[in-house]
Design goal:
With 274 residues, the protein is an all-alpha fold. It has one domain: Up-down Bundle (Formate dehydrogenase/DMSO reductase fold). Helix content is 72%, strand content 0%. Helix 6 runs antiparallel to helix 8 and helix 7 packs across helix 8. 45% of the residues are buried.
Length: 274
């Protein structure tokens, strides 16, 4: 009999929203964009991370006990991550009302921690070899920055503000870096343990190949990179931003679903999938 499907769209939604929300704050505030755009990015980031945190709490077995992870900040990575999320949401909210240099630095540090933690949350699960690599937090951080840049592109258009001249160039650079990290990640996994290698094959040519090749590689990396290079119009930039967001969501989905655990004696491959 297969294992219960414990980690589903709610966890994937948290991974995506927390990364994109934190990334939007990092891009806007770290990129020294206009104060109005930075404040809007702070509010958007706090809202997205807050929704993502609610999804994560919604995945708990006994939801009213989530406060226990805050009682000892250093007891586990979940506790550390919860405090990072709380620090980002509080500093981002205060920055929205009272923007300043100190709050900007605190918010950026918390945002970087929040974006990186989305990868750490999976990486510390030792029973899932497909996630057990320091490449995962790095990949999720870079993806958070690319999806954050996409959100800033859309937010700039929605507010009717002029686009930052460096945003298109830097988004293209982030996509290239993200693509290299995805390639390196899969290269490492296919040469790793038997379970990790089989998970990688499920991504490359198995049940998750649609999400990987069409969702992440094509729609999330190749096509938006081509648009940013060949189509200079603002509307094209907005289209590429939507595609980057779709690719970032797809990345979290197949990464989560392909993470098979180590098999116990007598178990089949179907038994160890999430």
């Amino acid at each position: 009999m297969g294992q219960p499907q414990t980690w589903d769209w709610k966890v994937a939604g948290y991974l995506f929203l927390a990364g994109a929300g934190a990334g939007a704050f990092l891009v806007a505030v770290g990129g020294n964009l206009s104060l109005s755009l930075s404040r809007a990015a702070a509010l958007l980031g706090v809202c997205l991370v807050g929704v993502g945190a609610c999804l994560l709490i919604g995945d708990l077995g006994i939801k009213l006990r989530f406060w226990r992870v805050l009682s000892n900040p250093t007891s586990s990575w979940i506790s550390i991550g919860s405090w990072l999320i709380g620090l980002f949401m509080s500093s981002g909210t205060i920055y929205f009302f009272f923007p300043g240099a100190t709050l900007a630095w605190v918010g950026m540090l918390a945002a970087a921690g929040t974006a990186t933690y989305t990868g750490v949350l999976l990486g510390v699960v030792k029973a899932r070899p497909f996630w057990n690599t320091p490449l995962l937090p790095v990949l999720f951080l870079v993806s958070a920055l690319s999806t954050g840049a996409a959100l800033i592109t859309l937010l700039t258009a929605w507010m009717g503000l002029p686009a930052a001249p460096w945003l298109r160039r830097d988004t293209f650079g982030l996509l290239i870096l993200e693509g290299l990290l995805v390639f390196l990640y899969m290269l490492v996994m296919v040469q790793s343990t038997a379970t990790a290698a089989r998970s990688a094959r499920e991504v490359l040519r198995g049940r998750w190949r649609f999400w990987f090749w069409l969702g992440t590689v094509s729609a999330g990396l190749i096509l938006p990179s081509a648009i940013l290079t060949l189509a200079p119009g603002r509307s094209w930039g907005e289209l590429s931003a939507v595609m980057v967001l779709a690719g970032g969501a797809s990345l979290r989905w197949w990464m989560l679903r392909a993470g098979a655990r180590r098999a116990l004696p007598g178990e089949s491959w179907a038994d160890v999938l999430i």
